[in-house]
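TL;DR need structure tokens for one chain.
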Amino acid sequence: MRLPNPRAMILPLMLAASAQLNAEELSFAKPEDVGMSSRALEAIDPLMKGYVESGQLQGIVTMVARKGEVVYFDKYGKLNAESGAPVELDSLFRIYSMTKPVTTVAAMTLYEEGKFQLTDPVSKYLPEFKNTKVMMDGKLVEQKSPLTIQQLMSHTSGLTYGLFGSSEVDKMYQKAGILTEPNLEAFSKNVAAQPLAFQPGDRWNYSVSVDILGRLIEVVSGQPLDKFLKQRIFDPLEMDDTFFQVPADKVNRYGTNHQFDKDGNLQIIGRPEANRYVDVQFVSGGGGLISTADDYMRFSLMMLNGGELHGARILGRKTVDYMTQNHLNGIFTNTDGTGASNGRPGFGFGLGFAVTLDPVLTGTIGSVGEYYWSGVAGTIFWIDPVEELITISMIQQRGSRVPLRENLKAITYGAITD
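>> reply
TL;DR here they are.
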């Protein structure tokens, strides 16, 4: 529920009474207490309601925090267009690639323990990558330098997805059934058996790199990825509603996934009672998590706070700083010296997060150094250390064309008054 409003006084009581929400509640404040305008934030309401009433989106949960205080939290529309069930504040969403920052943070906890160096070859821990070749102009050649763990985290590994591109290597991924493997070990070996799409470090290419990182976590830690994430991140941060498999007693809170077909007709592409998140066969560190706005806010606050939340330290402050710098090292560098992640001016990429290098070149208001990512079903978040601002919006709609991030940025930054 948004703050402040007539419901604000009863919100803490509602949260405390709800068995679905976490024991250590997030802190709520009036926007004016943290240098924001209540009136300006109210513009979120008609924007979200307009998306829902027009049918462009089905259901949305949006959460905004500044200086550690939640100043806006509200819900709109339906969790399931088929049944008409309403979306709730604690609804569960497939966050897809918003899993990647979580997995990368988990790997960095091992780095902080001296378990590996970022410059270590991946093959040191996953020997199947020792002889992986590179596809260059239709020919297989040797790697000029070994694929490293840092390159997995920054998507400069030479790996690809087999979903979004049409290169020769993408086609080889498809033919090899990369995305149908039953577990991370088999997945890693199949990926390693295919050539790299380019020399490691030469380009930025969105890929299965973080799934391979998930396998590396398993080998280094000696634990399955899901158990490691629960132990190192979810339990300490009280992210009780974040998991790879939806528990049976929480399926009623889990949303349907929607998509418009080419003719503009709404389709159901993932009913909550029968899909891979209820009966998990493959634990994907690159895109497999389910979460809530509340839980992802906890993760985001931990990052903004320099690796700690409510007394639980996940990472050191310098590690967080290092992860959220640009790691592309001149890749996609424009003539003015500004990097561009994935060919887009003004953006760079760190370890697990995209990073804004120049808001003017991005064409969207913001700050130098804000970091973010999104999920293929439309979930978004960003963290702005300069303004101490976090915004999260959860939807379940693949192929959404509404400028959700851009409009929320315009409103939230416009609401800053100090």
